[in-house]
Specification:
Blueprint (H helix, E strand, L loop, with lengths): L14 H15 L4 E6 L22 E5 L2 E6 L2 E6 L4 E6 L8 E7 L4 E6 L7 E5 L6 H4 L12 H9 L5 H6 L9 H11 L12 H15 L1
Antiparallel strand pairs: 1-6, 2-3, 3-4, 4-8, 5-7, 6-7
Helix pairs in contact: 5-6
């Protein structure tokens, strides 16, 4: 049975799933040294410097997550991945089929980490950088609901910008990061609010209720 598997199956992994995934990657791969890297989907690799082969010989020192992005830490390098719709990370004794594989990383202990993507959209992406802030999509992300500074007042200021339905605001990664289609539905259900409500029209009590639901559901 694979040691690490991220949810896919037509759902983009969101903040809670990727938190658990990063924790598992860090625990399962700590100290594992890269023996080989294979880029199966060239279109998914968004960087060329440093070359992907620079990972060979590097040992995993940790893992991290920001919004819907997860990464492996290998010394000074960061292998950043966005699983997109139907994406998975699977750790096992052999690589995934080339039909679904995006990237595979062989480790010196015989295990293989496969990044795969089902379906036809093929929007999964990979970056190799020395600083995660160099991944362009990460630069424009809003705050995360589980950040200590994400207070009710901060949420109220975000909602006041308007321009979306309430569901659209919850899933707009530039407004707040890490929440997508699936968890926003749970948040709205717990808060007893319509997805079509106008966020800029919520009163203070409603904002408080939404904040409580956001933090509660994601936690």
């Amino acid at each position: 049975q694979p040691a690490v598997r991220a949810a896919g199956g037509g759902v983009v992994p969101e903040l809670p799933e990727l938190d658990v995934l990063a924790e598992n990657l860090a625990a399962r791969l700590a100290g594992a040294r890269v023996a080989a890297v294979r880029v199966v989907s060239v279109a998914a690799l968004k960087t060329f410097d440093p070359p992907i082969d620079t990972l060979v010989g590097q040992a995993v020192t940790g893992a991290g997550r920001r919004a819907k992005y997860v990464w492996l830490e290998l010394g000074d390098l960061r292998l950043v991945m966005h699983l997109s719709l139907g994406g998975r990370l699977v750790l096992g004794p052999k690589p995934a089929s080339r039909k679904v594989a995006v990237l595979t990383v062989d480790f010196d202990d015989g295990r293989v980490l496969s990044m795969t993507e089902g379906g036809t959209q093929r929007r999964a992406a990979v970056w190799l950088v020395d600083d995660v802030e160099k991944v362009p999509p990460l630069a424009g992300l809003g705050p995360e609901p589980l950040d200590p500074g994400f207070t009710t007042e901060r949420l109220a200021a975000i909602l006041a910008e308007g321009g979306h339905t309430l569901k659209g605001m919850l899933t707009d990664q530039r407004a707040m990061a890490g929440v997508g289609n699936a968890w926003s539905d749970d948040v709205l259900h717990r808060a007893r609010m319509s997805p079509f409500a106008r966020p800029e029209r919520l009163d203070p009590a409603e904002v408080e209720r939404l904040h409580t639901a956001l933090v509660g559901v994601l936690t």
